[in-house]
Amino acid sequence: MTKFESKIKTIEWIDNYSKLVDQTKFPHKYEYVKITTGDEMFDAIKTMIVRGAPAIGIAGAHGIVLYAQELQNQNLSKQEFVNELLKKSDYIESARPTAVNLHWAVEKQKSIIKNPNLDIEQIVEQLRINGKKLELEDIEINKRIGDYGAMVVPKGATILTHCNAGALATVGYGTALGVVRSAFANDPTIQVFADETRPRQQGARITTLELTMDGIPTTLITDGMCSYFMKKGMIDMVVVGADRIASNGDAANKIGTYTVAIAAKYHNIPFYVAAPLSTIDTNIKSGDEIIIEERSHDEVTTINGERICAEGVNIINPGFDVTPNELITGIITEVGILKPDYKTSIAKAFENK
Q1: Cβ pair 244, 286 in contact under 8 A
Q2: What angle do CA 150, 272, 278 make, to 5 degrees?
Q3: 22 part of the active site
């Protein structure tokens, strides 16, 4: 398998701070922001300076390091330090409730905080080491996802994506777009149709930016156009990411994904979800248990600061929807492509991990 190297690094720990690409500035500016405190990282996650489930997870891990560095200088006893840092860990996890990767990364850091054999200085150092380790592992995991996914991409395929599950949603390679990158490395006739992804236009602002940066042919379409192109035979497969996958394979992803999955099923087009095992929440039985984040009404009522609807209209703005497992052809992970029945294949994937 030919390897593809993306030019993008979304998040990186440097010395005693975290460096993030500011994704609220896309597509007009490509800028980095230096995050030096835990509260700054909470706000960066909450306001979507950093976004995408895997990237949010790493940001959470980095945020706990930042809180630990701050608490280290407050002359606390070890027990006071641990208690306060565990509270801060819970706080940063609350920034985005749907993406399970944030919970996963926070729990990884909590296991270090709770280690009775470490003093304060050792806890802080081990948190730094683990935060960097999780960051580097994310890229390798995504490359494995990409390589497994590339195996099911037909030659010359046009792949439809929704939202952004690329390098900018991870540390630097991508889940759904990792599949695209790995496939493109061996077949440069591969191309992408990207849904714009209302209301925040992650497909338009972010997916098109990173794919054109990497030289991968990309066509932008509005969310309502996918069925039109499917009927015309212009879409060969769909690959999307996920923010949380239940133990039965139901998958939460950006709002509108469920609609794409229904259209794909009707047109007999394969619909794949690409995500690391850390996105699978084995503690929940189905997608009915996934908390769906309700986001600001301003995302719907305004574009570029200009109001686009009547004053006084009611707004509902769920950030995600859940695609039932029966609409999913396969879940592409770092250990292979999981197939129905998902309850069994997911359980086996974790047994063999």
Answers
A1: no
A2: 90
A3: no
Average of per-residue pLDDT across 72-86: 96
**Distance separating the N- and C-terminal Cα atoms of the chain:** 23
Question: Which SS3 state, helix, strand or coil, does residue 310 take?
Answer: coil
Average pLDDT over residues 44-48: 95
In the chain, the domains with their CATH numbers are 11-142 (1.20.120.420), 152-351 (3.40.50.10470)
Provide the 3-class DSSP secondary structure of residue 50. coil
- 3-class DSSP state of 240: strand
Count of Cβ atoms closer than 10 Å to residue 199 Cβ? 21
Residues 268 and 279: their CA atoms lie apart, in Å, by: 26
CB 262 within 8 A of CB 118: no
Cα distances (Å, whole numbers) of residue 251 to 100, 287, 289, 300, 324: 11, 7, 11, 24, 7
Query: Tokens 């095992």 appear where?
Result: 277
Query: What tokens appear for 133 in the block?
Result: 């380790």
For Cα atoms 115, 171, 252, give the angle at the middle one, nearest 5 degrees. 85
Q: Is 13 exposed, middle or buried (0-12, 13-18, 19+ CB in 10 A)?
A: buried
Token duo for residue 264: 């794909």
CA angle 195, 200, 205 (to 5 degrees): 60
**Average pLDDT over the chain, rounded to an integer:** 95
Contact by Cβ (8 Å): 336, 309: no
Q: In a 3-state reduction of DSSP, which class is residue 78? A: helix
What is the band of 26 on the pLDDT scale with cuts at 50, 70, 90? Answer: confident
Tell me what the mean pLDDT of segment 90-97 comes to: 95
Look-up of token digits 């950093």:
50
Catalytic residue chosen out of the listed positions 147, 223, 243, 250: 243
Q: Mean pLDDT throughout 301-329?
A: 95
The residues that bridge with 19 in the sheet, in sequence order, are: 12, 34
What is the bridge-based pairing of β-strands 17-21 and 251-254?
unpaired
Percent of all residues in the chain with a pLDDT value above 70, rounded to a whole number: 98
